[in-house]
Write a structure and sequence with these properties.
The chain has 173 residues and is an all-alpha fold. The protein has helices at residues 3-27, 30-46, 54-87, 97-116, 119-129, 135-142, 146-167.
């Protein structure tokens, strides 16, 4: 075993039970807590912790866990909203469980992409795509000119194209 795997094994053994307990209290769900604890340590493998102080290690793990919880809750909200809207559709138009999983994952990726965009860009995109507003109406709503709305939409659509390429496996991060 090399030094990195030995230190990771020690870190995992020292903090896993504590982190699992922290996540169980936050999520109130045993299996979700186990999944997120696993994800936290996977992130730690990708960005090794150089800190040797026990308290700082836990602080770092708690920070990772907090971000994972926020992502988890956001994902659940998106999934619930989509399933609620899906429940209004006739049974014969319902997607298969596999299609549902793909759609939820895509919604999550689009939401994450929109969250990375400036507010006006994501707002313009949502107003156009979800509410069907014209560029003129969006400009009035955002208090900008139509030309700026065109720039916002171009920026959002570029990010959508990048996201589509990433989801299709054409881009490597």
């Amino acid at each position: 075993m090399d030094i990195v795997s030995t230190s990771f094994t020690h870190l995992y053994g020292t903090h896993h039970t504590w982190l699992l307990g922290l996540l169980r209290r936050r999520l109130n769900h045993r299996w979700d807590a186990a999944d997120l604890a696993h994800d936290a340590f996977i992130r730690l493998l990708n960005r090794p912790l150089t800190e040797t102080d026990h308290v700082r290690q836990r602080s770092y793990l708690a920070t990772i866990a907090r971000g994972l919880c926020i992502d988890h809750w956001r994902r659940r909200q998106l999934e619930k909203a989509w399933l609620d809207s899906l429940a209004l559709r006739p049974q014969d138009t319902q997607p298969s469980p596999e299609q549902r999983a793909i759609i939820v994952e895509t919604l999550y990726e689009v939401d994450a992409m929109l969250a990375r965009l400036p507010t006006n860009v994501s707002d313009a995109f949502l107003l156009a795509q979800l509410h069907g507003l014209t560029y003129k109406q969006i400009a009035e709503h955002l208090g900008v000119g139509e030309r700026m709305v065109k720039k916002y939409m171009a920026q959002a659509l570029l990010h959508c194209a990048i996201l589509e390429a990433e989801l299709d496996g054409l881009l490597v991060q």
